[in-house]
Amino acid sequence: MLELNHSARDTFFEGKVKHPFMAYTLSEAVGVARGIASIRGEKVDSLVDARTLIESSARNSGHNWITGAVALDVLDAAIDCRDLSTSCRIL
Question: How many Cα atoms occupy the beta-carbon half-sphere of 7 within 13 Å?
């Protein structure tokens, strides 16, 4: 399990978080959030910001956004110190 201190949960870090069942990493999830932010004219200053943007986009999408669900899995693992091999949206 990945362990982070409080400040790492709020800002970006160099942790090697990746999804156990999909070829997807934390840096890719942050990249998706930054792309969404750029379209909206917003900034992504932390992992929490990234999760909020992706959650909002997934909720507002008219389809089952698999990439968004995987991105949320990876961000949740980094922020909440989740073990993705036992708890994730995509199996």
Answer: 1
